[in-house]
Amino acid sequence: MLALQALLACWGCLLPDGTPAGLFAFDALTACWFLIWTFGLLSRHPQLSGATELFGGLGLLCHETAYAVICMTLCLAFWQRSRPNGIHPHGQNPHGQRPDNGHSGGWRLGLFAPAGCAAVALPSIPSLLGFGAVPGLAMLPALSEFPILAWSLFVPPLLVMKGMTWPLILIASGTVVTLLAPSRYARQAWPVLLLGLTLAARAGGLPDTALAGGEALVLALALEAMGRHGWSLLFHIPLPPLAGFLPLWLGLHVVNGLCSLSPAWTAGGMMLGLAIGLIMLRGWKTGWDRLAAGAGAGAGAGTGAEAGRNAAGSVSALTLGLILSVCPGLLIGLVHPALLRLSDAGPDIWRSWPIWSIAGGDGTFWYPAAIFLLPALLAPAILGTLPASLPPFPRWPVSSGLSSPALRLPWAMRRPVVLLRRRYAGTVALGHRGATARAFAKTIARAGVILWIVVLAMALAWLGWTS
């Protein structure tokens, strides 16, 4: 069923116009949400109940807001019923959050119900059309477990609004929450900042920059749909060329593009660039802290059907994470009609599927396939020093029963790796030197600062040379 659902979503993404069929409509933007929802169902751990999946999908397909709100309310109710008191039926809390106090269903439904009613009523009141995005902001925390459902109701009202008011509100609120809120709330506000940048470029008449912002938004939502458990957490870390770095890189270049609008954006662009750098460092440290602390150590645990579901979810998350890291253009090319609608650009803006290179909106490009070689060469230097509490690496279905090939490199290629391992052996060798996981996380965070400074310096040098 998930395979058929994925095929349906891919077919809908390529439709040029909407195809209403009674209560349902399947245009490019709806198909984009539906495809990301399918990503979440493929890699979510543990899996959701059938009723939750059914009503969530129906809510995405309903083109009438009232019917969509009813289906999403039922989806939230069935999800809450399957995990009383905030504890999942399998006895795990896969998102690393503290158990709820038994009233979590009350506050989620109590927040979503009036927000949904407001989303239905506001379009019929002309004097309140400017507040059409307020219910969507309330839905984001209510549907924090299923953010794509909230985004399907949050984005359409913003696309019909003019001016810079709402883009600036989204940029300011997304920046503040992402920098200051706890990590589980900060990661939900990061796409809000990207949406604000996209709408600002759209309002300023910069279709290329708005297209890059839409690409960053879709990639961030696809990553969030994958969840943050087991090995999928690794792909959220903003380290080139992992998928978590690409929305930050695109967001930084969207800011550079916005600086060309007017001199008033210059100071704001500098502050936003600094904020994105701080967001990257926070994401780097948070991700490695969770890895070092053994977050997701239970992935792949259990027996029988539960172990099979966990292993399947880990392999799916690993596969999707690698695809989004090495060739994110597969997803971007598939949903490009939705991106053109987000950026308010014509089909002439879209040139071809960017399988390996992605434009940043300001004349720069990103080549993840080529840059992936650098971490691949450095991986042997750090893989042996990872904490022992990391989840086990899932076996690929195609490699079952096959032995791993031994790759013998010449000494000239192995020598830098050996020297690098010797350099860090006294600092991050957790098993042999007795260092703690906290020391490992501190070392990785320090390396992240250095990496960000190097990347920023290279970007500034390139912009100075091209100007």
From TrEMBL:
Top-level taxon: Bacteria
Transmembrane spans? 22-42, 54-79, 164-181, 233-252, 264-281, 317-339, 365-386, 443-465
Alphabetic keyword roster:
Membrane, Transmembrane, Transmembrane helix
What is the designated name of this protein?
A: Uncharacterized protein
